[in-house]
Amino acid sequence: MYSVSELRKGLKIEIDGEPYEVVDFQFVKPGKGQALYRCKIRNLVSGGTIDKTFRAAEKIDKPNLGERDLVYSYQDAENFIFMDENFEQVVLRADVLGDQQNFLVEESEVKVLFFNDRPIEVTLPNFIERTIVETEPGARGDTATNVTKSAKVEGGYEIAVPLFVNEGDRVRIDTRTGKYADRVNKR
Amino acid sequence: MASISLDTEYLRLRRLQDNLLARSLILQSIREFFLAKDFIEVETPVRIEAPAPELHIDAEPSGDAYLRTSPELHMKRLLASGMERLFQIGPCFRRGEVGEWHNPEYTMLEWYRAEADYVDVLADTKSLILHIASRLLGKTHLTYDGVTIDLVPWERLTVREAFILHAGWDPISAYDADRFDIDLVNLVEPALPRDVPVLLKDYPREAAALARFKEDDPQVAERWELYIGGLELANAYSELTDPAEQIRRFEQCNQRRKEMGKETYPIDPAFLRALHRGMPPAGGVALGIDRLVMLFTDSAGLDEVMAFRG
């Protein structure tokens, strides 16, 4: 259990059986009244944010959260199958992965946050490298980065890349924005 | 590491210079205001034996005594000795109050006027705010948190009206202490107008603290709180002068503190003697200087108006 004085931004707490993260909190004390902590908390499963006011004497549940390193193995209909360090299979539903499923290729290493036994959040490395498998030929010598064209990377995900990027190039993608970051080197 | 934190403080204090100058001018203009009205500036002890018991105010121990949470009881002893108009500016301490708008040590302005009530000291308060505005800004309006505030018209709202309007219940006829605090901060305060000063007045008798009950409506206490720009700035009472009622409230408060697992405070015998001897009817106001400086410098938090948070 946490006491209210331990509240701070980023703290993960449990309310009514759901895991939340404190995104904002404010100490308030109306004239002659009790000390209160007005918080904005984000549901770690649904992503929705709600307001919650805690009294100074309240106790707050600690969620049973654990992070595990998993390696992506393959996709099976709606499910994505990962392996843990003991080669045990872990099944993640597509909605837990969201857009990040675009950046998975076989052997991708991810961190998965579990609430009790339930996977709730997947963290990829901030940047991943991918090979361009399909794009229009680039204009030689064109180094402008503000003009872009569409390109497909291994796995089929499409991104906008500068004109000088060609098929076979290795590029870095920012997994937080889903956008092209830079060209690494040629194969 | 040492040089990095030194630089941080240097930069912060450099950035604060304008606000600290404003703070000095505000303190000057407050003294100017009260001295011109024949108030006497007093100083009373900061380290005291007996802080007034209040349910939600915890005193910081200092050896076998406490740091004052307010200068109230000593100033009332002076009132009972025959001083009619007095004010004090000085530090007060409240244990555990830390936030953007709270600091365990802060500066309080407190003044008392004999043969007066909470309406008379409201007139003082309004003149004081306008005096500071004219000395500091040369005008009667200011901008705080993006809103232009006209300091001339003051809106008055009873607690009953405000709660019925914004929280949907009447805390005077059926008081619920816990719900009162939560609805006040979540529903009532956010709904108060920001473009003029707002007075919330006539509190439930259970939240009277050291205020007297209204003669023609004993369910409410003659107490008001002033909000400007969403900042709660001042608290005022028609002061309670009845020693029997005062003892009853102190004892009841200590009893409830004990039930809450909090320490209790000794009841100041010299203050009770002063009440028995006879304290004149009086109005009194406590105003937080740090938040007042926030208002006049358009500062979001105490960090911008206190050189050191302690």
How are the secondary structure elements laid out?
The complex is a heterodimer of chains A (187) and B (310).
Chain A: E1 2-3, E2 12-15, E3 18-28, E4 36-43, E5 49-55, E6 59-60, E7 65-76, E8 79-83, E9 89-93, H1 94-97, E10 109-115, E11 118-123, E12 127-135, E13 148-153, E14 158-162, E15 169-174, E16 179-186
Chain B: H1 2-36, E1 40-41, E2 47-48, E3 61-62, E4 65-67, H2 72-80, E5 85-93, E6 105-114, H3 118-136, E7 141-144, E8 147-150, E9 155-158, H4 159-166, H5 177-191, E10 198-204, E11 213-214, E12 217-228, E13 231-238, H6 243-259, H7 269-278, E14 282-288, H8 289-297
Parallel strand pairs in B: 1-5, 9-10
Antiparallel strand pairs in B: 2-4, 3-4, 5-6, 6-14, 7-8, 10-12, 11-12, 12-13, 13-14
Describe this structure in words.
By secondary structure, chain A is mostly beta strands. Chain A folds into three domains: 2-60, SH3 type barrels; 65-123, Nucleic acid-binding proteins (OB fold (Dihydrolipoamide Acetyltransferase, E2P)), CATH 2.40.50.140; 127-185, Nucleic acid-binding proteins (OB fold (Dihydrolipoamide Acetyltransferase, E2P)), CATH 2.40.50. Chain A contains one helix and 16 strands. Chain A has one helix spanning 94-97, and strands at 2-3, 12-15, 18-28, 36-43, 49-55, 59-60, 65-76, 79-83, 89-93, 109-115, 118-123, 127-135, 148-153, 158-162, 169-174, 179-186. Chain A has a five-stranded antiparallel beta sheet. Chain A is elongated. Chain A starts with a strand and ends with a strand. The model of chain A has no long low-confidence stretch (mean pLDDT 89). By secondary structure, chain B is an alpha+beta fold. Helices cover 39% and strands 25% of the residues of chain B. Chain B is built from eight helices and 14 strands. In chain B, the strands form three sheets. In chain B, strands 1, 5, 6, 9, 10, 11, 12, 13 and 14 form a nine-stranded mixed beta sheet that branches. A three-stranded antiparallel beta sheet of chain B has the order 2-4-3, with no helix packed on it. In chain B, α1 (2-36) crosses α8 (289-297) and α4 crosses α5 (177-191). The two termini of chain B are 20 Å apart. Chain A binds chain B through residues 5, 26-36, 38, 51, 53, 55, 57, and chain B through 54-57, 96-102, 177-178, 180-182, 184-186, 189, 207, 209, 225, 232, 235, 260.
